[in-house]
Amino acid sequence: MYRAMQLWRVVLFVVVSTAAGVSAARAAESDPKPDVRSDAVPEAVRIEVQSPNPGELVRGRFDMMRLAGLAEAGERQAVFDVVLVVDVSASTAYPSGVDVDGDGVFGVTEPALIPGLPGKRNTDPEDSILAAEITAAERLLESLEPQRVRVGLVSFSGFVNPVTKQPSETEPSARVEHPLSDDFDSVRRALQAVLLRGASGGTDMQAGLKLAVSELAGLEGAQSASRPGSRRVVLLLTDGLPSLPFGEVTVQDPEDIEATVAAGQLAADAGVLINVFGLGPRAGDYPQAAFKVSQLTGGSFVPVRKPGDVVTLLSGVSFAEVADVVAVNLTLGQESGPQDIELLPDGSFRGFVPVAQGLNRIRVSALASDGTRGSTEFEVTYQLQDLSDTELRAELDRVRDRNRDIQILTERRRQDAFRRQERERALTLEVENDEDQEDEETNP
């Protein structure tokens, strides 16, 4: 998929460059109107450029202009209901491998100084896996539009009665921390409350998934009202393997896997897509249940070996069926680079496009997950302004931070492409072996 997207970028740039080579006289004959956006051909992907407006006089201090809009695939405008399902089991108290709170100190696990006594799980609790999950969720909220997206929050862990060895009747394995809502500030407060309560218990993954499905479907007892026509999405963040609702709280039993997969089938039947982020080597290397859940619902499984990287990766998830957005300045024949346009989970995009002093004609194109595409064009007049040293430093810092985040997303896409290639190679070898065996049986 990633290689296909890159190839599409190259083809698009060649076409644009050729068009840009047409003489100025011919361009003048066409006399395009600066205040009109038009799709070149009937397309399956709709694009709305929200900023700048067509024909607008834009003032800036760089040879790059800010761009923002929305790309939508499908027959109708999409609205989304998204439930964040966050693992708060005891293991999420351990270090995430990232300086989540940005204080310059990385939390680490320290062994006990005296044999027989417990060591220190995390020297900086604000760098824990749980802290990374919460920070990732907060950053995701920043990239969503409340006009189109409702967000809910479910947490899960799991407790067992020490006498009966059964799931605790007084401590629920999963709870609705916030119903589906477009009040993102309220959701942020709920996220902070989860972080403040801390990590404890086992990993009853199926309980979290079932509760999320109930909220999305508006089943009896749910705190959320179902929204007809919305696309239902679960984003599951977990650092472990399901260890409940059966057996010992610290042991994964076959029944735990079966219960989790059954919850995934329930989600599939309700039309809920589940994207799973497996945090750390344990969740990423042995994801039998989590991978099956994502597969059943048409979602994705994303292994995150350094759990703290989920802060960046969660915002890179897509549930709008839009794979890529490219902006090109037709006047200059220059394309935005891979790191210049950021595609957000709900199909919104923002970034920069190359511009020059004077009139600029811009084309924005989008590629959907199914290979269909769309484009729109508009014109703006750009006027350069001077930039102070303070403003320049602030802009360079912003670009540096954003490039680091995009590099992590690019590496994830590279890994996904490699895994797909390896799976296809394994399937090919399996088919060839079967054919060889048939030949041996036919011609002994």
Folded structure, characterized:
The structure is a single chain. This protein has 444 residues and is of the alpha/beta class. It has 2 domains: 2-76 and 320-386, Immunoglobulin-like; 80-316, von Willebrand factor, type A domain (Rossmann fold, 3-Layer(aba) Sandwich), CATH 3.40.50.410. Helix content is 35%, strand content 24%. The strands form 3 sheets. A 6-stranded mixed β-sheet has the order 6-5-4-7-8-9, sandwiched between helices.
Write the topology of this structure.
Layout: H1 2-20, H2 24-30, E1 45-51, E2 57-60, E3 64-73, E4 80-87, H3 129-142, E5 149-156, E6 174-181, H4 184-197, H5 205-217, E7 231-238, H6 254-269, E8 272-279, H7 280-285, H8 288-297, E9 301-304, H9 310-313, E10 322-329, E11 334-335, E12 341-343, E13 348-354, E14 358-368, E15 373-384, H10 389-442
Parallel strand pairs: 2-15, 4-5, 4-7, 7-8, 8-9
Antiparallel strand pairs: 1-3, 3-13, 5-6, 10-11, 10-14, 12-13, 14-15
Rounded radius of gyration (Å): 25 Å
Mean pLDDT: 80
Q: How many distinct helices? A: 10
CATH fold description of the largest domain: Rossmann fold
Strand pairing plus helix content: what structural class?
alpha/beta
Q: Regarding CATH, which class of the largest domain?
A: Alpha Beta
Largest sheet: 6 strands, mixed
Oligomeric nature of the chains: single chain
Low-pLDDT windows of residues:
1-42
Q: What level of helicity do the residues show? A: 25-40%
Distance between the termini: 43 Å
How much of the sequence lies in strands comes to: 15-25%
Q: What is the molecular shape?
A: globular
How many domains make up the coordinates?
2
CATH superfamily grouping of the largest domain: von Willebrand factor, type A domain
Strand order of the largest sheet: 6-5-4-7-8-9
CATH architectural group of the largest domain: 3-Layer(aba) Sandwich
Secondary structure tally: strands: 15
H and E order: HHEEEEHEEHHEHEHHEHEEEEEEH
